[in-house]
Amino acid sequence: MRIYLIGYMGSGKSTLGRAFAQKQKLNFIDFDAYLEKREQQSIASIFNEKGEIYFRKQEAKYLKELLQGREDAVVSLGGGTPCYGDAMERIKAAKGTSVYINVPVTELSNRLWKERDHRPVLKHQDTPEKLEEFVRKHLFERSFYYNQADVILRTQGQTLEESLAALEKALL
After folding, report:
1. Does residue 110 sit within a domain?
2. Has 50 been labeled as part of a binding site?
């Protein structure tokens, strides 16, 4: 079993993915952590020092590596990973199931407001209103890719346990 979790930043891909993997006794791979380990640098540092174009090229390279993996695993992809180049096509062609964790804009904005200092693309959003407008626009642009997932898991105001049960129901 290979599960690829996709969705906007703050949608809970890593949290839900880790919980699902643990419950199903699967390996868990956080793609952002994988990329940081391979680059020996944080994503924020990569963005600051080398720019987004370099980051996206490296992201594509490491995604290719992960998609070639054969072990059972839950893979939490970066929010933008499926939205560049032919990444979504490659995800869909890989062995496994892609799952879009769909969270409403207002909920995403509330979650991200608390952690925007740790997210390079959000560092300039200095009011909750600006952040929500940014998320709304960005999510609209990315929805074309996200909605190609094999499974769309809509969550709104759910606890981790409720989201986990919904994911299990959708996949098992």
Report:
1. yes
2. no
128 conformational bin, left if phi > 0, alpha if psi -120 to 50, beta if neither: alpha
Both tokens of 74, joined, read 């839950």
Q: Is 106 a member of any domain? A: yes
What's the whole-model pTM score? 0.93
CATH number for position 48:
3.40.50.300
SS3 99: strand
For residue 98, say whether it is annotated as part of any ligand binding site.
Answer: no
Given a cut of 90, is residue 132 above it in pLDDT?
Answer: yes
What total of structural domains would you count in the chain?
Answer: 1
The confidence score (pLDDT) of residue 122 equals 84
> What is the residue range of 36's domain?
2-162
Q: Is 79 annotated as a binding residue?
A: yes
pLDDT at 69: 85
22 belongs to an annotated ligand binding site: no
Query: Is 136 assigned a ligand-binding role in the annotation?
Result: no
**Any domain includes 169:** no
Decide which of 118 and 67 is more confident.
67
Q: According to the annotation, is 97 in a ligand binding site?
A: no
Q: Please check the confidence at residue 118 and state whether its pLDDT lies above 80.
A: no
Structural domain contains residue 94: yes
Q: Is 32 annotated as a binding residue?
A: yes
Task: Spell out the residues 6+ positions from residue 133 whose beta carbon is closer than 8 angstroms to its own.
Answer: none
